Amino acid sequence: MKEPQIQILEDASATHVRAAEEIAHFAGEDICIHAEFNLCLTGGSTPAATYELLATRFRLSVDWKEVQFFWGDERCVPPGDPASNFGMANRTMLGQLALRPEQIHRMRGEDPPEQAARAYEDELRRCFSIDVGEWPRFGVVLLGLGANAHIASLFPGHPALHEAERLAMAVTVEAEQAHRVTLTAPVINHAARVLFMVTGAEKAAAVKAVLEGPRDPDRYPAQLVAPEDGELLWLMDRAAASLLAKSG
Fold first, then answer.
1. How far from 60 is each of 79, 92, 220, CA to CA, in Å?
2. Separation CA 218–CA 162 (nearest Å)
3. What are the residue ranges of helices labelled H in 84-152?
4. How far are the Cα atoms of 63, 91, 113, 168 from residue 73, in angstroms, in the given order?
5. CATH 3.40.50.2000 matches 14-198
6. What is the pTM of this model?
7. Contacts with 244 (C-beta within 8 Å, 6 or more apart), sequence order
8. What is d(CA 13, CA 50) in angstroms, rounded to the nearest whole number?
C-alpha cells in the first residue's frame, strides 16, 4: 500500500470543493482510459455539499452518462425515507443529472436486510463481471468517518470487520438506524482510489486515533482501509485535523 495522502483544507466548504475537484478529475481519468467511471458513494451529512457541487458547478466537468453509481452502505429504510443514503444522493445530485436508470445501483433498504445484501453481491458480480472469490474494483470509494471511527456501516467491535469472503453484509449496529447493509473491508481495499471526506471538530479525536493512534481496527475500523493496489486520500478541514501532531 502507498502512504496515504493527507490534505488539510481551511474549512468545511473548502473541503467539499476539493472533494468535488478530485472526483471530477478521477472521473475524467477513468473515462478516458476505461470508457467508464465506477463511483461508490457514501452517506451521512458530510458528502451532501460535495454532491450538490458535482451536480451544479462541476456538472459540465464530468461525462455523467459514463458514470456508474454504487453505495458503500445503506440504512434499512425505504428510498424516500429521510435516513436513506440513496435518497440523500438522489436529492442532492442524481436527480439533477440526466442519468439512465441502469446507471444507478442502489442497495434496496426496503427489502429484508440479508436479502438486500445478497442481491447487492449479485449486482456487483454482474456489473463487474466477476465470479465468487473475486472482488469488484471501483474507480473511487468515498468514505466518511464516524465519531467512533466507523466507515460505511462497519462499526467498532462488529464481527463484520473480519469478513474476508462476502462483498456485502447485513449488519445490526448501535446507531439510530440499527439495521443496515454494508460493503465489506476487502471490497473497499480493492478500489483504485479511496477518498475520505472528514469535517468538524467532533471528528478530530477519531481522525487522530485512526492516523496516529495504536493499530486497533476492532476499535478504530477506519484503520482497516489500506488499498492493496490503489491510492488513499484524506481530505479534511482544520477542525477535523486539529489534534493531529502533523496538522501543519
1. 27, 16, 38
2. 9
3. 85-92, 113-128
4. 25, 17, 11, 9
5. no
6. 0.97
7. 207, 208, 211, 212
8. 9
- Round the CA-based radius of gyration of the chain to a whole number and report it: 17
3-class secondary structure, 37: strand
CB 39 within 8 A of CB 70: yes
Rounded to whole angstroms, the Cα distance separating 46 from 148 reads 15
Enumerate the H helices of the chain as residue ranges: 12-34, 48-55, 85-92, 113-128, 185-189, 204-212
> Residue type for 141, please?
V
Which residue type sits at 221?
Answer: P
What cell numbers appear for 80 in the block?
424516500
In eight-state DSSP terms, residue 70 is: E
Q: Is 101 within 8 Å of 94 (Cβ atoms)? A: no
Mind listing the pLDDT tens digit for each residue in 120-136? Answer: 999 999 999 999 999 99
Query: 11 with 238: CB under 8 angstroms?
Result: yes
Quote the CA–CA distance of 119 and 135 in Å, as a whole number. Answer: 15
Does the pLDDT value for residue 248 go beyond 60? no
pLDDT tens digits, 104-122:
999 999 999 999 999 999 9
Cell of 10: 481551511
Would you tell me how many other CB atoms lie within 10 Å of the CB of residue 214? 8
Rounded CA-CA distance 107/85 in Å is 9
Angle at 80 between CA 75 and CA 81, to 5 degrees: 50
What pLDDT is attached to residue 92? 97
Closest CA to 107 of 77, 82, 134, 129: 77
Bridge partners (DSSP) of residue 75 are 180
Q: Report which DSSP code applies to 110.
A: T
